[in-house]
Write a structure and sequence with these properties.
The chain has 2 domains: about 160 residues, P-loop containing nucleotide triphosphate hydrolases (Rossmann fold, 3-Layer(aba) Sandwich); about 60 residues, no CATH class. It is built from 9 helices and 10 strands.
Length: about 240
């Protein structure tokens, strides 16, 4: 079995009486792309919050390279190597594209001086944003804002990259660009967990798939086999064969 770089074991999360995660366990191996799907309200983004450190689990543990990081906050986990994007890009609109990525390299990645500038430049190159480096972030269209969200995450030098519905709102041509970027990251050895509703884009990139519903994992395995599972079709596709 491949060695897991990121593991969540028996993760549960309650907000008062509302139980959003129900004993979720998953793992992702180094260099793997793990897809996560499920209907709205399945707990996917809450799971990312728990993995990234923005939320503390009510129960369970998060392990990074075998080390328990459950008590570490989001800033500490970012320095340890867990980076994430958000469904809605959150650039600093008053700053340039390069300044946005430089801030991520400095404050998220802990780099300084020339190392921070080089890290930012590399992240822009990997995200296809070099030509936009000096543009105001506020001037970017949706695809380039998604790329900037990705570049900022990459500038922190992650071991594991959590992508939260990064394909949402893009055209088919823009999705092709995005899938190409994700595949390139895999070729570079990046470990990725990707939540996405646009299945045909997700299935072109991932190695393995997890389906969630009502806060729990209902299926896991080879992507097309998971999507053909009757339980998954009932929960996620409304029972359509």
């Amino acid at each position: 079995m491949p060695v897991a770089i990121l593991e969540g074991t028996s993760l549960s999360k309650r907000f008062g009486a509302l139980r959003v995660l129900r004993s979720v366990s998953l793992s992702v191996a180094a260099g793997e792309i793990l897809g996560v799907v499920g209907p709205n309200g399945a707990g996917k983004t809450t799971l990312f919050g728990v993995l990234a450190g923005a939320l503390r689990p009510t129960e369970g543990r998060v392990l990074l390279n075998g080390d328990d990081v459950t008590a570490a906050n989001a800033a500490r986990r970012c320095r340890l190597g867990i980076a994430r994007t958000h469904q809605v890009p959150r650039p600093f609109l008053g700053m340039s594209v390069f300044e946005n990525v430089l801030a991520a390299a400095a404050f998220g990645g802990g780099l300084a001086g020339q190392a921070a500038q080089e890290g930012a430049a590399e992240a822009l190159h990997r995200s296809g944003l070099v030509d936009c480096a000096n543009r105001p972030a506020a001037s970017l269209g949706l695809l380039d804002r998604k790329r900037l969200e990705l570049a900022r995450a990459l500038a922190t030098r992650p071991r594991v990259l959590l992508l939260d519905e990064i394909g949402g709102g893009l055209t088919e041509a823009e999705l092709d660009v995005l899938v190409g970027l994700v595949r390139d990251l895999k070729q570079d050895g990046m470990t990725i967990v990707w939540i996405e509703h646009i299945l045909h884009a997700l299935l072109r990139a991932i190695d393995r798939l997890v389906c969630m519903a009502e806060g729990g994992v209902i299926a896991e395995g080879e992507p097309r086999a998971v999507m053909a599972d009757e339980t998954v079709m009932r929960a996620y596709l409304g029972g359509v064969a």
